Amino acid sequence: MEDRIAVGVLGATGTVGQKLVQLLDGHPWFRLAEVGASGLSAGHTLGELVSEDALPNQAADLRLSSLDSKWESPIIFSALPSGVAYDIEINLAEIGHLVVSNASAHRMHSDVPLLIPEINSNHLKMVDDQPWGGGLVTNPNCAVAGLALALAPLNQAFGIERVITTSFQAISGAGKPGPSAGIILDNILPFINGEEEKLAQEPQKILGHFNEGILDTANFFVSASCTRVPVSDGHLLSVSVSLAGSPSLKLVTEALQDFEVPEVVRGLPTSPDSALQVIKDEDRPQPRFDRDIGNGMTVTVGRVRPCEVLDVKFFVLSHNLLRGAAGAALLNAELCRAKGVSTGLI
Ligand code: NAP
Fold it and tell me: CA 296 to CA 194: how far, in whole Å?
């Protein structure tokens, strides 16, 4: 008998939704049962709208519903644009679904955990205080995912005082259809709407201490400049950090290398062998060569060196669609199941 939990994917025709559909193929705990998209796509099968190469066989036959349909699956992944996600995510949580969202709509809500399981799995307790029969958990912005994983061991070991970062973000981060070839080829776009604000706010929530129902957000400023570059997948960030006590480069490198992942996370199906990997080669990490390490769930750090203005600087790379989106959401859903989060429907 099928004992995997039925899940739905909203935004299944989109860039992140398609990745989720792929990752759910053969998943040991979850079974893709329902897919949704806009009214324009509703009524079509997924296979009619998404390249067959990108789809597992059974998923191709699933028929897309519009958002106002009745959803049966206890767990609903949301890969919707933020404005669309706002109401539907709350509505689904109210009627008992566990909503696992990629969208930014509710990330900064005080009752909603902004999860990177390797860093803040205890924030999941926020779900207990949510006013809905179901629950809502979120994963961070795709560039924040890599940044926060690199900052976490430094904050833990020394305490972060200031961060300055410039991102070089892949085309797939823009969703579909993304910038046209005529705009992105031979070019760099020095503006991504709303992105710098997310880098300036989300890390402090992720790295905050949650105790007895109260989140004490980490106390540092992030100055972010975000660019779009002609790379298919993988966000690279140049990061400079000021640390309490100005530790030596050796101590900083050791802290990054020794980052420990909680036991409960290590056993999750989507958890990579190593969440954070320091690469020694002086010309790495590079998106094309390093984004797929750990099935796209390992964040790589390289060129750790002294900073002439703050204390230390380095590059961070993460796969925006995996560690930064679909893989992150799946890991969050796995954490919910492993920690026994129960909603009205599970
Ligand atoms: P996308 O490629 O533009 O896909 C959007 C999806 O939402 C499509 O399935 C689309 O369906 C559906 N949709 C759009 N308007 C809708 C409506 N009014 N009602 C119902 N469905 C609607 O976007 P994406 O890049 O996958 O991003 C999805 C979400 O994840 C966004 O909130 C984004 O900020 C977030 N995110 C993206 C990334 C990334 O790297 N791309 C990373 C982290 C988080 P149709 O095909 O029918 O239009």
Answer: 25
Alpha helices in 248-313 (DSSP H): 249-257, 263-266, 287-290
The set of residues, in sequence order, having a beta carbon less than 8 Å from that of 45 and lying 6+ positions away, is 60, 61, 62, 63, 64
* pTM for the whole structure: 0.98
pLDDT digits (tens, 9 = 90+) for 161-189: 999 999 999 999 999 999 999 999 999 99
pLDDT level of residue 244 (50, 70, 90 thresholds): very high
pLDDT of amino acid 1: 53
Section 92-105 average pLDDT: 98
Annotated active-site residue 336? The verdict is no
From 97, 106, 123, 235, active-site residue: 235
- Residue 189 CA to residue 294 CA, distance in Å, equals 29
* Segment 289-328, tens digit of pLDDT: 999 999 999 999 999 999 999 999 999 999 999 999 999 9
Residue boundaries of the structural domains of the chain: 5-139+326-338, 142-318
What's the CATH code, domain 5-139+326-338?
Answer: 3.40.50.720
For residue 303, report the distance from its CA to the centre of ligand 1, in Å: 34
| Ligand 1 centroid, distance to 257 Cα (angstroms) | 35
Q: Does domain 142-318 have CATH number 3.30.360.10?
A: yes
| Rounded CA separation 127/111 (Å) | 7
Nearest atom (ligand 1) to Cα of 42: 47
Substitution site in 45, 68, 89, 102 for ligand 1 pocket (most atoms within 8 Å of beta carbon): 102
- As a whole number of angstroms, the distance between CA 18 and CA 12 comes to 5
- Within 6 A (CB) of ligand 1 lie 11-17, 37-38, 40-41, 67, 79-82, 84, 102-104, 142, 172-173, 175-176, 320-321, 324-325
Cα of 101 to ligand 1 centre, how many Å?
Answer: 11
